[in-house]
Amino acid sequence: MIRKLEDIVIYTPKEAEKELQGQEGASELKRLLEWQHVKFSKVYMLSDCIVGAILLDVKIGGEGLCYIVPYYLDRERMFLVAGEGNKEKIKEMLSKAEQDQNAVPELSFCGLLEALLVNDLEYMQQMEEDCYKLEENLLGSLIDYVEPTKQILSCRKHLLAREFYYQQLADLTDILAGNKNEFFSDRALKVIEDIGKRADRLCGYVQTLREYLVQVWELYEQQIDVQQNKTMRILTVVTTIFLPLTLMAGWYGMNFKYMPELSSEYGYWTVMGVAILIVIGEITYFRKKRYF
Asked: Confidence class of residue 2 from pLDDT cuts 50, 70 and 90?
């Protein structure tokens, strides 16, 4: 009997097929085991049982690791199907859920659904704080042209995965709440509907963060534009400063025979002094206009 969620039996695929051999749901379970490479939840509401697969999210070190876990549920028993390598991780996730479920399989199944959202609000709040820190770093320091891009794209990709996770969970609870085969009691249906509402709220939370991250991306592009504009302004000022000197060099580089300055004793120093005065005058003007 199931006294707590860790007590839910987890079979290997071969053990599960043997357990259901010749029974209702065996063909559906086999089909799900063949589809394990597809990462989404699925449910078959049969006459006396429910067969399906849950996208199980195990959060480790701030990352969500997803496993597609087939399950079987009737009025007497419930079990999950997973490979040997995933059993311990799944049991660890189940151990973090509330342990007030009784031995009724349908309520144990509801407890499993609740376990899918354990600490998810805190998890999303941490992601929100990470987005805030990213924005502060963009505003408060010089931009690295590579690293912020990687961080923003990584956050966008992760948020997209979270949105899909909550959306498919909400769709799953909608199907279960329909109770086509009248399998669930009123108490279980209420729990399932509450889980669906929580998944919808979390999905909305993710969408808000995705919109916020778009604004952070736009801010990043604006910061790059500002930095590039500063660079172009400096280059423009330097070019403008030396433009008159280039004109003077070109003018006096013509070397006509009767240019008066060529034979003057102080011609070189006069031109040099004029050039210096021009540079000083331009720098003073540009600083007054706050061009740099």
From this structure: very low
Is domain 232-288 given the CATH code 1.20.58.340 in the classification?
Answer: yes
Contact between residue 278 and residue 242 where contact means Cβ atoms under 8 Å apart: no
Pick the CATH number of 1-118 from 3.30.410, 3.90.380, 3.30.2400, 3.30.460: 3.30.460
Scanning the structure block, which residue is given the tokens 């995705």?
210
pTM for the predicted model, two decimal places: 0.71
8 Å CB contact between 90 and 1 = no
Angle between helices 105-115 and 186-252 (to 10 degrees): 10
pLDDT > 70? residue 174: yes
Distances (CA, A) of 117 to 27, 57, 85, 120, 141: 30, 9, 22, 5, 36
